[in-house]
Amino acid sequence: MILSVMYRGSWRHAQSLQEKLLLVSQIFEADESDQATNDPYPPREIFELSITDGPGGKGWSPDNGLTVGVNRSTGYGGLAWCVTGNNPNKGGVYDHVWVSDNPEPPAFDPRVVSESYYPHYHDPASTFPIDRIRAAVEEFCRTDNGSRPESITWITGNMNGMRSDREYPDDTVEGSFV
């Protein structure tokens, strides 16, 4: 199986477990000096992963996806996971979008972006320290089947990071949750 990662506007691929973990390391330990931003909490990054039997690319649609948002300056990240209708698994966890669920969330808003194309942010209760997020991403690579990582807790939600157990005001798109 192949890990395909959309990161900073380009696809990257890895096949062996060693290559997958190296790619994850490169992403989590990337040099952030080349990122220009006016955000008071730079840098915010997001990357999208899938495990498939072929490499992703333009016009390609995977049947599973793990979206990872990190804010290195606050030290937190968040996850969203889902499968598409093309996935052979049905029912249970496969019928929903899931966002990470921290039972002991930070007391502040770590401003973890949840979408690459629009400024949505994860609810603080959906964020974990980056080392926990990285461990879940590495688990995603080790299972090698696109399944939702089990090393963290999850709650149903949306790919934009919003949780199903909360109601959000209309201004949460660019605002803080706290």
From TrEMBL:
InterPro entries attached to this UniProt entry: DddI (IPR025680)
Annotated protein name in UniProt: Immunity protein Imm1 of predicted polymorphic toxin system
Pfam families: Imm1 (PF14430)
